[in-house]
Structure formats: C-alpha cells, structure tokens
Amino acid sequence: MDVIVNADDLGISSKVNEAIFELMEEGRVTSATIIANGPNVEEACSQVPRFPQCSFGAHLNITEFRPLTGHKALEPLQDTNGELVEARIRQTRMDKALAEGIFLEFCAQVERLQSLGISISHVDSHNYALTIPKMLPILRKVQKRFKIGRARITRNIYSDGLLGRSGLTSHALSVDPGLGDRDVSKSVRIKKWGYNFLLRNYVGMKTTDGFSGFRLFYESAKDRRLGHRTFEVNVHPASTYYDAGEEEIVQGAWTDEIKFPIRLISYNELE
Q1: Long-range contacts, stretch 213-216, CB < 8 angstroms, 24+ apart
Q2: Which pLDDT value is given to residue 242?
C-alpha cells in the first residue's frame, strides 16, 4: 500500500512549523497542507524549498482566523472581531451570496500561497469544512479555476470495536466520543461514500482510496489487512488538541508493526 503522511496546519504557529519540518527531515512526514491565513504562513512557506521530496497543499480555511478577503457575505461566519468561528459554517444556511464569498476567500488563499512560491499539490480543509456536502459546488469552482487536481476524501475506515480491544480513548482515535464502541451509523457511511464519489466524479478530483487520522489507521492496520491501494493519514505535530501519542508513534518504526508492506509517498506521486 502507498501511504501519504500529511501534516495539517502548517503556518498556524512557529511551534507547529518546526515540528512538521523536523518530521519531514526525518522522512516521517511526506506532505503538508498550509493555512494561507495562518499567523505564521510566510515563515512556513520560506522553508518549503528545503523539501522537494514532499508535497505541499492548501489547507483551505473558513473556520479560524481572519479571512484574507473583506467580503461582506462572510460576516455570518465571523464574530464581532472579524474572526472566523469554527461552528458557523455548519450552522449557517448556504445561500448564493455566502457561497460566492467562500469561493472568493478560497481563491484568495490559493493565490496567497502561490504568491509565496508554493506549487499546490492538493487541497483539504481546516476542521474538515470541505467534507460538508454544501461545500462541493464551491470546491468544484476552485478546481476549475486553478486546475488543482487532487484532494482529500472524507474518512472511510471506522473504529468499530477498537476502543474496547485497545483501551484507547475516542479522542486518541479522533472519533466521536458519543458513539461508544461502534463508529458512525450505516446511513452516515453511505453518505460518506456518496461524498467521496461526488468528489471524484462531480468535482473531478484525484484522491487516495482511503483516508483517516493516523492513529486510527495505525491501530486498524495492526489488527487487520486493509484493502486500499493508496491511503492518506493526517497528523497534527505539536498540536495542543490532538493526542500527543500520535506523534510519538510517527517518530518510531510504526511501518514494521503493520501487517502488510507500506511505501511512503507524497501527493505528487499519487497516480
């Protein structure tokens, strides 16, 4: 199996930037996505030329920090200080004006990264905002404008039984703590399959066959052979939110513990 290890949130802080680039130097992270409106985006982009073996994508962001554009249509997603609020994109009805505002903001973010010298390999999103179905037409417009041909799918392996067998918390596996030892329902799995189908066939993106957070993939792949040809796992080095044990495993010989051969690749190598 070909596996992309993508570090999210490059550009969010100096601490995160440093942690991601250290893992790239060690060959443990093969890709990263950059927050164009992050506080430390210029610092991050200045280091990218050091890693020609890695891919760098756009971590499209409509959930945190100030937007790059001053588009009035984005106001429902912002607080009184003009900062984007994570929950708003899921709570706010998507009308024509808001869709246009988000599209223009995403365009500004892509153009910002390009202006900083980034050849954008793929797109995903901060706080998984692009996995909301109402975002697909906006992403399609971005794809058509910039011809970015690769994107992250929504998660399509599940933690059923892992909590009980492994003793891990739902937080460590990045799954909903309210679901118990069974992951998402059958209806949600069907919706996720439909999203991934539309991402490939309506938006026109090339994707991996599988995606999940690193720890869920690692624990699942130790337990059974996964049938995917290509897989993306995301990691969050130096994050204060995600479980610190993830980073420790990434730094170790985790591929030796998996039940099948793994080749680490970047998004640039995804066929």
Answers
A1: 213/155, 213/173, 213/174, 213/246, 214/5, 214/246, 214/249, 214/250, 215/168, 215/172, 215/173, 215/174, 215/243, 215/245, 215/246, 215/249, 216/155, 216/157, 216/159, 216/162, 216/173, 216/174, 216/175
A2: 76
